[in-house]
Amino acid sequence: MKTWLVDTGPLVAYLDGGDPAHADVAAALDDFTGELATTSAVVTEAMYFLSAAPEGPSLLAEFAVASRLVVRDYTQPATLQQVAGLMRKYADTPMDFADATLVFLATDLDTLDILTLDRRGFATYRTARRKAFHLVV
Q1: The CATH number of the domain where 109 resides is what?
Q2: Which phi and psi (to 5°) does residue 35 adopt?
Q3: Alpha-carbon gap, residue 102 to 111, rounded angstroms
Q4: 41 band by pLDDT with thresholds 50, 70 and 90
Q5: Does the global pTM surpass 0.90?
Q6: Torsion sign across C-alpha atoms 43, 44, 47, 49
Q7: 112 within 8 A of 106, measured Cβ to Cβ
Q8: Domain that holds residue 70
Q9: Of 7, 27, 70, 103, which sees the most CB atoms within 10 A?
Q10: What is the C-alpha R_g of the chain?
Q11: What's the burial of 34, exposed, middle or buried (CB within 10 Å: 0-12/13-18/19+)?
């Protein structure tokens, strides 16, 4: 089964019809039949951005259930040290915490396909096996 990693921007764009990227993200997600995966850091960021809309957080929760979104957590102390090291390595790009956790998730799930609006970042980042990401939108 095909797995796509999902970044914050596409989650927000998909659920906010007024977002400039909504149509592109909706077209990609509506046609996708595989598994979607993300991290708790991405969910946290998306909840923050969607909290401005009265139904935003509920829409995200409903999407997560309906899509059977796989959510992994990378906040345990040992992992946090590795994530911080990755953020330091890509400080010039820059890389935020959510992006760093997605790089870890890519390695854990052995997938390179990512739905992201951060083309610059994910065109630069590499997995632990030094593989480049494939941006699906």
Answers
A1: 3.40.50.1010
A2: -100, 140
A3: 11
A4: very high
A5: yes
A6: negative
A7: yes
A8: 3-135
A9: 103
A10: 14
A11: exposed
What would the two tokens of residue 73 be? 């957590």
CA distance 7 to 18: 18
Could you give the number of structural domains in the chain? Answer: 1
Q: Is the pLDDT of residue 59 over 90?
A: yes
Tokens of 62: 């409903």
pLDDT computed for residue 53 by the predictor: 87
Residue type for position 37: A
Instruction: Give the number of other Cβ atoms within 10 Å of residue 31's Cβ.
Output: 7
DSSP secondary structure, 31-94, as one string: H--SEEEEEHHHHHHHHHHHTTSTTHHHHHHHHHHHTT-EEE---SHHHHHHHHHHHHHTTTS-
Return d(Cα 92, Cα 129) in angstroms, integer: 21
Query: How distant, in Å, are the alpha carbons of 33, 68, 75, 81, 103 from that of 97?
Result: 28, 23, 10, 11, 10
Asked if residue 86 lies in contact with residue 94, where contact means CB atoms within 8 angstroms, the answer is: no
